[in-house]
Amino acid sequence: MNKNVQYLKAGVYTNSNHPKVIAYAKEKTKGIGTKKEQVIALYYAVRDGFKYSPYHIVLKPYAMKASHLLTKDYGHCIEKSNLFVACVRSLGIPSRLAYGNVKNHLGTSDLEESLKTDVLVFHGYAEIFLNDRWIKATPVFNTALCDKLGVEPLEFDGVNDAVFQESDKKGNPFMEYTADHGTFADVPLKAITLGMKAHYPHLFKTKVHDAKFILEFDEV
């Protein structure tokens, strides 16, 4: 049995069989011949087609589905990476989800104030199986945001890993990976919720949040 079969199947959250996901993937890869070029096209479509926003996180089943991101124009890393993986998978290319913790050296004061830390827990990215190897891809920070932060947009060529930049345009530290949570065939919603609860317990003590940051969740 092909060990990558699980990374071709639709998941509960990585719902690559959803009609809207399939249609979106076909639209963004129309007229593109090779698998590698199709993956690259999807990477840029997701990276720049949805604004990155970490200020409204919904840890609920309906919101974690890849198809849900297609109902809005913004999303956080978990959502954007999941849609990318689902789209790639819908084209018959093995793809999986990966998560890690990152230390955000250029984090905004508003976000750090809300989280009470500069560590982003369960940052989501993707791994795509091309040319008999897994390649990391992070279709998260859109170009406009990178320009605002003074960071070069993260490019993806379908050959080399594309993970968060270590420094900005001036050489200042930007993103530092501090933990690896491994890879998954589907969004590990319970693990993500528990991980965030362990690092941001104050956000789970009340359903009332300030205007800057909103977290919605189900009890686990």
Instruction: Give the structural class.
Output: alpha/beta
* Poorly predicted runs of 5 or more residues: none
* Shape call: globular
Main β-sheet, spatial strand arrangement: 6-5-4-7
What portion of residues belong to β-strands? Answer: 15-25%
Mean pLDDT value: 91
Number of helical regions: 8
How would you explain this protein's 3D organization?
- The protein has helices at 19-29, 35-49, 61-64, 66-69, 77-90, 109-115, 143-149, 189-199; strands at 51-52, 56-59, 74-75, 95-104, 119-130, 133-137, 175-184, 214-217.
- Strands 6-5-4-7 form a 4-stranded antiparallel β-sheet. The chain has a two-stranded parallel ribbon with strand order 1-3.
- Helix 1 (19-29) crosses helix 5 (77-90).
- With 220 residues, it is an alpha/beta fold.
